[in-house]
Amino acid sequence: LQTQSGGDVNVEVNAAPGEDLLKKLNDMRQEYEHIIQKNREEVERWYESKMEEVSQQVHSSGQELESSTQQISALRRDYQSLEIELQSQLSMVRSLQSNLEDTERRYNMQLQQIQSMISPLEEELASIRCEMESQNQEYKMLLGIK
């Protein structure tokens, strides 16, 4: 536009700002600075309270985490102890079962040996009974003849 019009425009204001205007501007500036300071303090208090809350939550969470970690460690120790005891008991059961099987096998063998000794004795006893019956009959006959 300046090249088209071919001239410069100069505007000057010779009016000095009135004292009232400067005073009002200074008053407004102070008022806004006071509001800004008040807001800053309020935000800082809010920030501090929130930081305190977060700090307490972090501290509380840290304690809960430590407590939970200790509980987990205690439970792991208990689990390992119980697992060891279980394995020990299972080993003892296997050992006792093996001993029981060995004992049953030995007693079965002894029972078979005793049975093999009893069978001939029973046969001999039956034979002796028959012979006694026969002798008893013979004795009765002999007594009857007299």
Automatic annotation (TrEMBL):
Pfam families: Filament. The keyword Coiled coil applies. InterPro entries: IF_rod_dom, Keratin_I. PROSITE patterns: IF_ROD_2. It comes from the Eukaryota. One of its GO terms (molecular function) is structural molecule activity. Residues 22-138 form a coiled coil. Residues 1-146 form the IF rod domain. One of its GO terms (cellular component) is intermediate filament. Keywords: Coiled coil, Intermediate filament. GO terms for biological process: epithelial cell differentiation; intermediate filament organization. The keyword Phosphoprotein does not apply. SMART domains: Filament (SM01391). This is Keratin, type I cytoskeletal 14.
